[in-house]
Specification:
heterodimer; A: 500 residues; three-stranded antiparallel beta sheet; 16 helices; B: 57 residues; mainly alpha
């Protein structure tokens, strides 16, 4: 089936103009600075985080205890749960809201990497615009700062989830068997880099590692996302017709600043899923101890320490990724242009990582950050124990172009770009026109005042006891999307849209 | 050459074959390095100590 993917990013948020700030309020205020007026119209009816892809419904999530604690703390607040979440469905098909006190931007569903990158970066700029507006209201230019990262260096992590649509007939057991080892070594090009190590609430400034999230991976598979985080999340919330589709919801990934790293992370994973769907994934790549391996590899920036396979053999991390690359090359080398781009860049990246990873400073986040930190260490005559380094790590992810270290590199032309600034600006207001997000965005733009509730796969309109519903739960074929968009362009009313 | 400090007027689209095939290279011009160092030196030394977030997903 055609590719369809999206990224959800929880941003870190702080106030610098005050010693104490309330993360719930800050996150809510930020979302409400978007030019689309807030209305509590998100439809949570389609969300069931306890439905497990392994075929059962979880009785309890590990995070519930903490959530209940937060709920107790938040009980005094003079607003409802829906008001606190502050959900917005934007005209570009994205969702923007307050998730667990983090402003979260979920890209619309995208069918190409170019589109995904443009929309992911559009999210950064939408949040930046909101921060500017909030700072104007506060009367302090730098009051609110936003970070596209995954840790606070005190043991609290927040996610960047990559999502993929799959046909339901792909057995979840196959996904588990083949994806878990792939995800363990994906970090060699997808890691965003981190100074030090976190365990529980303990932070130790020891060296440098590939990934922000590896320290927080505790089990191979689980439905949980906030405690005992898994390499493979088993949440079964397809946001589509459940009989025909499943959504793979990966929580292991870092939030990438680099367009290239995002494209390679999502592109290689999409090819892996196609391999699994066709039964072509390598059979002898399973790791003996995936959780230990994900952390050990993250702390091995030489990329040379061998990983133990479940059949007793050992393999170097780069060679492990080559198993998947070789399978993908055999299966897809005659594929479309984007497939060929993924294969070529996957191969080149592995080759260069094997020779001198620092040559990828313009493409991979963990390399670019390491280069910046080493440059600072050299210039200051200091070492990796310098207490300023975690702060520099954090500022790498600041989305303010005046301050962010990654964005500083990008401003200097030192970062390999995949999309233009014009394409990003366009994506801030325009949905991908080749997926159902285009249909949703068009309806939001055209009939906003008529919408009662909205979610990814369904829009409910105002009117009577039985309200009219528009379903997008099977709208995935590009031709059907185009046809529907043509029809909606001509619709003058909701009745016409619904076909009453 | 990929990754020099020259400004790219036309960023590369992933669906196009990269035009600069000479292999990646580290940023190394003095001016750019100085600008980046200036940016890094401005960072509050206590920045990460003050940075606290609630656990997310």
């Amino acid at each position: 089936m055609a590719r369809l993917f999206g990224l959800e990013t929880e941003y870190g948020i702080i106030r610098e103009d005050t010693e104490t700030s309330d993360p719930v309020i800050e996150s809510m205020e930020l979302v409400r600075c978007h030019h689309r007026p807030f209305r509590a119209d998100w439809d949570y009816g389609g969300e069931d985080p306890k439905q497990d892809a392994r075929g059962f419904r979880a009785k309890i999530l590990q995070q519930e205890e903490e959530e209940l604690e937060f709920e107790e703390k938040d009980r005094h607040r003079p607003f409802s749960f829906h008001e606190m979440k502050s959900d917005l469905m934007l005209g570009n098909g994205a969702r923007f809201y307050n998730d667990h006190t983090h402003p979260e931007y979920s890209t619309p569903e995208c069918a190409t990497l170019v589109s995904l990158i443009a929309h992911d970066r559009a999210g950064e700029r939408i949040l930046l615009d909101c921060a500017k507006k909030r700072n104007q209201l506060l009367g302090a230019a730098d009051a609110v700062q936003l970070y596209k990262n995954n840790t606070d260096f005190h043991g609290h992590s927040y996610g960047c989830h990559d999502n993929y649509l799959l046909p339901r007939h792909v057995p979840f057991g196959d996904l588990a068997t083949h994806l878990i080892p792939f995800l363990v070594t994906r970090q060699i090009f997808a890691g965003a880099g981190k100074v030090g190590i976190e365990k529980g609430n303990d932070y130790r400034q020891e060296g440098y590692q590939l990934s922000q999230r590896a320290d927080f991976m505790e089990v191979e598979m689980s439905i949980d996302t906030m405690h005992e985080r898994p390499i493979l999340n088993t949440r079964d919330e397809p946001h589509a017709n459940r009989e025909h589709y499943r959504r793979l919801h990966l929580i292991i990934g870092d939030a990438n600043m680099s367009e290239f790293a995002t494209a390679l992370k999502v592109g290689t994973t999409a090819l892996m899923l196609q391999l699994i769907e066709r039964g072509l994934s390598p059979k002898s790549a399973a790791l003996a101890t995936p959780v230990e391996s994900v952390q050990a590899l993250s702390r091995d920036v030489s990329l040379r320490n061998p990983l133990r396979l479940s059949d007793g053999r050992s393999i170097a991390p780069i060679d492990h990724q080559r198993l998947y690359l070789d399978a993908a090359k055999s299966a897809f080398s005659g594929g479309d242009t984007e497939t060929r781009w993924i294969l070529e860049n996957w191969e080149t990246t592995l080759d260069v990582l094997g020779n001198d990873p620092m040559q990828l400073v313009d493409r991979l986040d963990w390399v670019a950050k390491k280069w910046l930190l080493e440059t600072f260490i050299d210039a200051e005559g200091t070492d990796w124990q310098d207490s300023r380094l975690p702060g520099l790590d954090l500022e790498y992810h600041n989305i303010d172009p005046e301050r962010g270290l990654f964005l500083g590199l990008e401003l200097e032309g030192a970062i390999h770009r995949l999309v233009t600034d014009e394409a990003i600006a366009l994506a801030m207001d325009t949905p991908p026109m080749d997926t159902r997000a285009g249909v949703r965005g068009m309806i939001v733009s055209k009939f906003l005042k008529d919408i009662h509730k909205i979610q990814w796969e369904k829009i409910t309109f105002q009117g009577g006891i039985i309200k009219p519903v528009y379903s997008l739960d099977q709208l995935f074929e590009p031709q059907a999307v185009q046809k529907e968009m043509e029809r909606i362009r001509k619709c003058q009313s909701v009745d016409e849209l619904i076909g009453v | 050459m990929i990754g020099q400090f020259e400004r790219r007027e036309k960023p590369i689209d992933p669906v196009e074959k990269p035009r600069d095939t000479g292999g990646p290279e580290k940023p190394d011009t003095d001016t750019s390095r100085d600008k980046l160092l200036k940016r890094m030196r401005k960072v509050d030394p206590k920045q990460s100590e003050r940075y606290r977030q609630r656990t997310g997903e």
